[in-house]
Amino acid sequence: MLGHDRIDAETYHRDIVPGLLIGTHGKRAEAGLAGLDPLGLRIGTGAWTYRAEGSRLRVVEGIDPDAGCVVRLSPDAWTDLVTLLRTAAALAIAGDVHTEQGTVLDLFRWEPALRALYQGIEIYLPQGPELYDRHGARVDPAAELTLDHSDRELAEHFEATGVMRVRGVFSAAEIAALNAEVDRLAAEARPDDDRSWWAETESGEAVLCRIVYASERSAPIDELARDPRLVRLAGLLHDDLAASMDRMEGVSVLLKPAGRLKGLANIPWHTDCGLGGHHIMCPSVAIGIQLTGSCAETGYLEAIPGSHGRTCPQPTREEPANLPYVAVPTEPGDVTVHVADVLHASPPPAGVGGRRTMYVTFRPPTLFEQVGPGEAINDLIRSRTASELEAGLGR
């Protein structure tokens, strides 16, 4: 599995951070400072405070008395955070964030600025509900697209949005055959099988919410890696991506149960690299085959088009009106296509639930070089109960 040599925190803060602060990284970090109280980090035997002074980011040795959040990280955990091997959420779920003051949510709010400082990743800032492509032309994120559109038309739309819906890719007969395979796999799934995710109802009952590595036990699903329609869509922007069938959870099937659930059946705003590994797994492309279709009643994909390639802080309930927000209702046989690091969500169904979506994800060569068969960033999630996940994420 991927990893990094440990970075010495004292050397890094003494020799590296001052240069980052006065360069492009520091400028990018400043965009995410609004509303943040000072953050104290204890790393091994050292301690530093990150704080905004006017519009500038300042990092000083020691913990300031006015630090609103103070967290303690091991040197290895902090190395993972600096290199994006693991995000703050992954560290929290693993129990590697020890909060001395404030909550883990305060660390989450600081993360866009930290990513900008450490890795130079730009912070996505709302510019209103309109979306424009690189030529300055307005783009409709909800445009009706089909395979009859040219590669150029599809690629230009996808480059601007990072998420799109393509109508009528699979026939009714193909969808029926895939649903039959899902029925069989769901009937065989057990909470301890390491091939499924489970949520909990309010009464504590386990509910299946995802099947992973589905192609291991299904020849029709395995064939999707070579389906020319999916290969075409995955390669619109990068022609070196390949389906990750034997790693990163392979082909997964999202099952959307109804009701109020604990765990990760209904996933709030996130990116697919939200637990870590951005530098080796992006720009992956996830293609969601709509086995049942989706709407507000059954749950559907939501996204912030144009947020890919940057760190997009989670929007408040009011902010989507000021963002190029899109909900993606679908019919059986449609597919959704999204870049791994576009901000998106899988909210609870407004009604009966029941949505089924099969995801085939195409990944860059760096992923296959550093993540072996049977390994996945999400392995940590499958090893935690729904209650443990909720606690680690500060819910």
From TrEMBL:
GO terms for molecular function: 2-oxoglutarate-dependent dioxygenase activity. InterPro entries: Phytyl_CoA_dOase-like. SUPFAM superfamilies: Clavaminate synthase-like. Pfam families: PhyH. This is Phytanoyl-CoA dioxygenase. It comes from Embleya hyalina.
